Every structure is written in C-alpha cells, then in structure tokens.
Amino acid sequence: MIYLDNSATSYPKPQSVIRAVEFCLKNLSANPGRSGHKASLAASHALEQARLTAAELLSANRDDVFFMLNCTDALSCAIFGLLKPGDHVITTVFEHNSVLRPLEMLRKQDKITFDCALPGPDGRITAGTIDALRRKNTAMVIVNHISNVCGVKCETEEIYGYCMQNGIVFCLDAAQSAGCETLRADMADIICMPGHKGLLGPMGSGLMYIAPDVNVLPLRVGGTGSQSESLDQPVFRPDRYESGTQALPAIIGLEAGIKTVMGHEEEICRREKRLAQLLTDGLESIKGVNVLSPHKVQSGVVLFNVRDIDSRRISYLLDRDFDIATRAGYHCAPLAHKYLGTMSQGGVRASVGYANSAEDICAAVAAVEAIARSE
Amino acid sequence: MIYLDNSATSYPKPQSVIRAVEFCLKNLSANPGRSGHKASLAASHALEQARLTAAELLSANRDDVFFMLNCTDALSCAIFGLLKPGDHVITTVFEHNSVLRPLEMLRKQDKITFDCALPGPDGRITAGTIDALRRKNTAMVIVNHISNVCGVKCETEEIYGYCMQNGIVFCLDAAQSAGCETLRADMADIICMPGHKGLLGPMGSGLMYIAPDVNVLPLRVGGTGSQSESLDQPVFRPDRYESGTQALPAIIGLEAGIKTVMGHEEEICRREKRLAQLLTDGLESIKGVNVLSPHKVQSGVVLFNVRDIDSRRISYLLDRDFDIATRAGYHCAPLAHKYLGTMSQGGVRASVGYANSAEDICAAVAAVEAIARSE
Question: Using CA atoms, how far apart are residues B199 and B193, in angstroms rounded to an integer?
Fold first, then answer.
C-alpha cells in the first residue's frame, strides 16, 4: 500500500511507539496518581516523564500541558470551557467540524455568535481578514494552523499579535501541524493537538496547551487522585483538566512519537513539502486534473479533482487498482469546500507523511494519469 | 507483587488484551470511518466488531453503546449533557468524585441542586432512601452499583423501577461492577463503565450506554466522518457521541477484555466475593483491625484500618515490607468516608481481581497481622 492519508492518521507508527505501548501494558499497568504502592508510583513517574517530554515539545511549563483523548476533545474543551453567553467568535472557512460544530451548537442555543473569515487574495487568513469581522464582544479567535482540506497555512504570529493587542483569546488548532511544524507555547493562548497524526503516537492520544492566565473550564470533572476529600475540582494544573484514569498506554506511545519528531520538525516539514510539491507539479501536468491546493505548497496536503468526476470515484480507483490510500469527500470541513467550489464533487486529498518517498509520489502521479485517461 | 488494587485498575491484563492492542497498532493503523480505502475500511470493520461485542455484553442495540475515554468521561457526559437549569438530582453518599464534582460544579453555578441519600439501617441504598429526598423537579438519580470505598452494592432493580414510575432518569455508575456483575441495558437509562477495571481492557478505554429515548447532549462535538457537509452534529447514534478519531488500540484491547469476561460475570463475582470474604474474616480476626466494609461482603472491595493509624502508613508498610499493593486515603469519595467516620485517617482498601488467589489473601492477612503487632 502507498499510504497518502496521513492527515487522517500517520502510518505506519514507528517501532519505538509500538514498543512503548507494549512496554506500558506489560510493565506499567497500575493506575498512575491514585495509590502509593511501587507499581502506581512507577506509572506516575512514567506519566510525568511523558508530560515533561510534551512540555519540552512546546517549550511550555509542565503544568500547562494536558493529555486528552484527541484533538476534538481538546477543541471542545477550549470552546465549551472558555465561551460565555453573549460572546462572539471569529474563525475561518478553513475550519474542521471539530471547531465549527461546537460553535454552531452554541449558536443554536443562542449563547454565542460567530463569523468565519475568508482568506485574502493570496489565499491566506491574516490579521486583516480577522479584524474585518471584529465586534466589541469578540472573545475568541480560532484558526487552524494548516488546513486539512487544501494545506493552506495561516499567519499565526500576526494573528496572535493582533489578538493580544485586542484582548482576544487566540486558540490554534494544530491538528495538521503538530509534528510537522515547530510549535511553541508562545504561539497562542490555547493549542489543541492530536497525538496520532504528525506526532506519530497511537490513536486515542491528544495534547492541549492552555496559557497560565487563560481560564478555561475543564470538559471532564471528577476524580484526579488529588484533594480527594474535596467536592470541588482542583484549580491547580494539570489536575484541573485531567479527570479519571489516564490513557497511559496511549500517552507512553505518544511520548515515543514525540521523541521521534522533536527537534526535527523543520526537516520533516521541508521533506513533506518537497514531496507535496512534487505531487502538485506532477498532478498539474496531467490533462483534466485540477489541483485545488496552492501551486506553491504550504504543507504536505494536496487536494485535487479529475474533471467533474465525483472525488469518491477517483479515490476508490486509486485504492482498488493501485493500492494507493487517499481520502475523498468533504474531510469534515464543509466551508472550505464551499470556498473552493467543490461542494458538488468533494475533493481527493493526498496527504504525505514522514514515511513517504519520492517513489510513492511518482506512483501516485502515474496512477492519477492512468485514471484521468481511462475514465 | 501481590496486587490488591483492582478497583483502581485491573492487573495484570490478559495476554489476549496485550496482543489485541499490538495487532491493532501494527495492522489497523488507518483511521476508522474517515476514508474509503482498504486500510480505513479494515479499521472501521474492527471498530464495528468491537461495538457489537460491547453491545452483546450489555444486551443492547449497537447504536446505543459508545466508546469513551474512561468512566469519568461517560459520567461527565451524562451529567452535563442531561441536566437543565432548575433540575434536582438525587445521588448517594457512596458516590465517587466523578459524580459529586460535576454536580457540585453545576450547583455552584446555580444551575442545579442535589441531595445525597444515606443508606438505610442495613447499609444499603434503596428506593425508599431515594424517595425520601424526591422533589417535584428531580430529573435524575445517579448511584454507583458497587461502592469503590467499601464495596456495598446498591439495589438497582428497585431503584430503576422507582425512577421509571416517577419519570426520573436513572444513571448507573458501574465503575466497580462492569465485568464483575452481569450488566444489562434494561438495568438503567444510562450506564457508565470504565474499560480498564473489571472489563480488563487498557487504561484509556470506557463505555457508555444511553437508552434510545433518553436525550443527552454529547460531551465532545466535531468530526464524525458522517454528514461531513453539515455544521450540525449528527443526531443519529453512535456518531452523535463519538467525535474525533477513535482510540482504536484501546477499543480493540477492550474488546479482547470483554470477550474474556463476558458470560463469566457470575463466576467472577462469586470468586471475588469468596476471596473478599476470606480477607474480611481474616482481618476481623486480628486484634486492632477494624473492617469498615460489610461483614458479609457484597463485592471484591474490602476497607479496613489498624487502630487509629493513618491508612497511608499501613498501605505504605504493606507495599514496602510485603510487596502488597493496596490503596489508602479517601479513594476520591469523601462523603463515603464521612459516612464511615474515617475522615481523619482514611481507610486501607484491598480490592481483589480475577487474577488473585487464596494464597494472595492469606499473605495479605498475615502481613496486616504483623503490621498490627509491630506498629
């Protein structure tokens, strides 16, 4: 199989990740942070090491980094936990349903309002495009770092500066960038990340950073193993955001994934962009193929269609006849497809990862060419 | 090590569980329900098989069983997702902070009120003890099936009958009973379960059942891989409650755990109770030991203290000198300790599991005897 669906989850997982999960299941099977016996303390120690690794990845304090179920879990926590009745939110047309659906739910409950920024003439979301939508009650700006549909990268530095100047909380959805771009705690007030994409951890792992001065209610509330005698959720971190038994095998696996990529993000980014550029150039040379992502790639995500053929048909043929894994349809991001004009046929997304080679890309280009010719 | 901390998490995990997680990481690494290629379809198929297994465990429809991060995740979903401003809740003094803290948070926000039932003279929570607290606006009754502090079992059948007669939603916290007691969908409107305790799955797995006619808002909202073109969370199940990438390795591991226990719950329950009774009888024979759980055990959980010595000291000595793992303190259930009169010293909890033997229990009794003599 040629796997070009890394935006859904990275594949294959490094051996170190698989071994770490196995090690945890066999040797760290007690509940961390609950009991005082050696087995529980060993699990707590391992959890703490994983937290320090995650904090190092983000240049963050260990108190401000939380383990979550997935990126959606982190985004729901950010949105439901921060917003108050009457708030206004600015987000973008590139957002995933993990941002749009919580906002739409709150809007339908008459709690908040929100607007979606369109990109400027260069196809990017900037502080200017955000500012045009600003209201007096704008409390939060949420943007995805890299679009999971067309791979466009947003100007986070400029947007965060704008938000800081205007007292607006800036939340970064790093679903596609974590592990493929250098992320730092000083890039946003809140950063939400999956563990199983660019960070190469197992499915069932996610990370969240919340700046110390930002007050977000936790999504889950309950036992933390701390202040057991109190009916109040602890206000100190990380306990405030981590209730219930931790997903230790997934977390230990994620730690191994982070260690694989940490410090190499720029190299990974360059490599993935080089392959994505090769794919884009190849696809653009095929008659009938329409590349919908930028000509000069900004990430490893490439979106295309073949004439007006349903994207699912193309993705199906790539899988059936060439064993090439891509994802068709709307990629849980309907407004991005509306903006790109692909609401009728969706798009074929090829997303490269750390394990892909130029050979994979050439095979994919040849396969699309053959399909474009025969269909 | 003699592991008597199964109420925190079961140990060791069966080989079949470890192998299932490994298999998933190596062979089912694509994202289920997202793409149409063979690898994603294989992952979707595996997820569906796991759901069917979980549904079979509960004699439930596959649409009504949801995979969660842990039991706390499920309970937060039930409490935050069901209750409306003005509602009243009846729960019990035996509850875990995973129930009490969400309720207390809502109470402090002036959204709800709640009362905690005390057990009757026989030490049990019954419909009568619940009814005494009923108000016109009582919308929900939440009880734990088996106390994680002292192992008392509640009369679920009687309570659910009472709730049905009075139009109150009955939520069962099966944290300690899942895998050790037969659970059926017709036992409650909502059942919340950890995957990693009696069901023998990995930490990072949980299950939730919601009856078809009970309307609970999801805790997480976002991408489901379904109705991608819509900004509204799907209302159909199970998608409504499962947003973001599934924790597939944990779920596949949980499935293997469920298969180990399913159909054997009564046998497991008998065995654990026999060992817990042996432990109780042994501890009661030691001078200075005060057993706080019922003389005639109702589950595998036994709570005790040695004179007025801090429970953490006893648990520490059991670990240090005898390599016996127990849990001291308050077990995230402060009101239970208040009721038992152990708020000053906490309690030592020994919780037996499927892997314990009579030899383990005899060694534990001898160890407590030695500590009681020397301290």
Answer: 9
Rounded CA separation B163/B145 (Å) = 15
Token output for B327 = 């849990």
Closest residue on chain A to B102 (Cα): A221
Can you tell me the distance from the alpha carbon of B82 to that of B75, in angstroms, rounded to the nearest whole number? 10
The residues pairing with A88 across neighbouring beta strands, listed in sequence order, are A113, A138
Q: By the CB < 8 Å criterion, does B69 face chain A?
A: yes
Spatial contact of B207 and B258, defined as CB atoms under 8 Å apart: no
Q: Are A277 and A195 in contact (CB under 8 A)?
A: no
Rounded alpha-carbon distances, angstroms, from residue A160 to A172, A261, B342: 9, 25, 51
Judged by CB atoms closer than 8 Å, whether chains meet at A315 and B243 is answered as: no
Give the Cα separation of A80 and A101 in Å (integer): 11
User: Is the CB of residue A354 less than 8 Å away from at least one CB of chain B?
Assistant: no
Give B222-288 as a DSSP string.
S--SSSTT-SSPP-STTGGG--SS--HHHHHHHHHHHHHHTT-HHHHHHHHHHHHHHHHHHHHTSTT
Q: Is B353 on the interface with A (CB under 8 A)?
A: no
Which residue of A202, A323, A325 is in closest CB contact with B249? A202
**Least Cα separation, residue A231 to chain B (angstroms):** 5
Residue B170 region by backbone torsions, left for phi larger than 0, else alpha for psi between -120 and 50, else beta: beta
Min Cα–Cα distance to chain A from B187, Å = 24
Q: Does B224 touch chain A (CB under 8 A)?
A: yes
ipTM of the complex: 0.97
Task: Tell if the CB–CB gap between B325 and A245 is shorter than 8 Å.
Answer: no
pLDDT tens sequence for chain A (375 residues): 999 999 999 999 999 999 999 999 999 989 998 889 999 999 999 999 999 999 999 999 999 999 999 999 999 999 999 999 999 999 999 999 999 999 999 999 999 999 999 998 878 889 999 999 999 999 999 999 999 999 999 989 999 999 999 999 999 999 999 999 999 999 999 999 999 999 999 999 999 999 999 999 999 999 998 998 999 999 999 999 999 999 999 999 999 999 999 999 999 999 999 999 999 999 999 999 999 999 999 999 999 999 999 999 999 999 999 999 999 999 999 999 999 999 999 999 999 999 999 999 999 999 999 999 999
- Choose among A29, A194, A196: nearest Cβ to B9: A29
